[in-house]
Amino acid sequence: MSGDHEHGHDHDEGSSLSEMELRVRALETVLVEKGYVDPAALDLIIESYETRIGPRNGARVVAKAWLEPDYMDFLRRDASAAIATLGYGGRQGETMVALENTDSVHNVVVCTLCSCYPWPVLGLPPAWYKSAAYRSRVVSDPRAVLADFGVTLPVDKKIRVWDSTAEVRYLVIPQRPAGTEAWDLAALAALVTRDSMIGTGLVTVPGGAA
Amino acid sequence: MNGAHDLGGMEGFGPVVPEPVHIPFHSTWERRVLANTLACMAMGVWNIDAMRASREKLPPAEYLTSSYFEIWFKGLVSRLVAEGLVSRAEVESGISQGPGRPVPSVLTAERVLPALAAGAQYTREPDRPARFAAGAPVRTRQMNPSHHTRLPRYARGKAGVIEAVRGFFVFADANAQGLGPQPQWLYTVRFDGRELWGSESDPTLSVTIEAWESYLEPPI
């Protein structure tokens, strides 16, 4: 019930965590008492983003694009509609654009002004995506930022950074790793990481060549 | 507004700290901040652009030393107070001093999933042709508006090329100020890294932004 039970991932000191817990509870109490918010609705929003709307959705889009050239074409023409055929869409993914990584081009997505991110396919953004360190530097020195993720690209590979300054939301389609030619959709989707769909990671086969 | 939120090109924040596992929240209060922010937006008193503007108005030192959900919390409180929906005293005490004022809508539990699935529509029917076509050279305006804008400082007064015409979209600058949607054509504009950062820039780098038509002018 209290902030004392929060552990494992907090970068804050315990005292500041407890203070935020109290302040947010105070606000919510007032909002509920005044009839502005419905506590059951709040719980459903949280449940949606904890259990249903996350990067496994995007991974299925990527795996399908790898397996079906027609679906990849659909993504190129109208990513919002193509993604909707898998049942994903809505809030913060109304206008989707798919960015294909190739042998010559690597795409990376950022929102330098806030935290714009394709929620229906990737869920809520990771803490680093919202951080000043990422937002400040990835537009000017993406190779240094990729190095923070352990990613090194060939020196002549073109890097395209996409700053999400309006309501267009981007999904990177990473390159399919070699050695997966016989894999099915579920196996491929399991390989696709969230970071590879933002552009700060590559898809690799565990134990295999990168 | 030239606030601390406009981070592109700043230095000194140190390395990015990856977190490979998907962890949407790091504490209980972060869950509640997200849920209350979305539920309050659904009241229909303000729009998403106004919400962003409220976060950007935090004093720079406070913005840069707050975690992202703290920024969301502070932005939400300032918006609620500015709209007269709650008082600072109520927020600080957690005790409501009286009934709420009427709001256009309250998000009930049965409407949550349909609302998330529907999203919001930011595109409008165009009432004029687009001024620029894909491939056209353009220049972003040099501007320093005191209000919310989505043209980052690092991309002002720069030469670029129209990468794509995205459609006719609600104009964030006007919408944030409560001046209505005032839709405009929206473009993806690509800049060479050297145009943004100088001759020392990585020659393999290009950066795109989304720019409304009024951010753009023909090249000099």
From TrEMBL, chain A:
Enzyme class, spelled out: lyase
Keyword Lyase: yes
Catalytic activity: an aliphatic primary amide = an aliphatic nitrile + H2O
UniProt superkingdom: Bacteria
Domain Nitrile hydratase alpha/Thiocyanate hydrolase gamma span(s) in chain numbering: 19-200
Residues binding Fe(3+), per UniProt: 111, 114-116
Family the UniProt entry places it in: Belongs to the nitrile hydratase subunit alpha family.
The protein's name in its UniProt record: nitrile hydratase
Organism: Xanthobacter dioxanivorans
Gene, per the UniProt record: nthA
TrEMBL record, chain B:
Gene3D superfamilies (alphabetical): 2.30.30.50, Nitrile hydratase, beta subunit
Residues annotated as domain Nitrile hydratase beta subunit-like N-terminal: 1-110
Lineage of origin: Bacteria, Pseudomonadati, Pseudomonadota, Alphaproteobacteria, Hyphomicrobiales
Keyword flag Lyase: yes
EC numbers, comma separated: 4.2.1.84
Keywords: Lyase
Catalytic function, reaction form: an aliphatic primary amide = an aliphatic nitrile + H2O
EC category: lyase
Name of protein: Nitrile hydratase subunit beta
Family the entry assigns: Belongs to the nitrile hydratase subunit beta family.
Any one GO MF annotation of this record: transition metal ion binding
Domain of life: Bacteria
Protein's UniProt keywords contain Lyase: yes
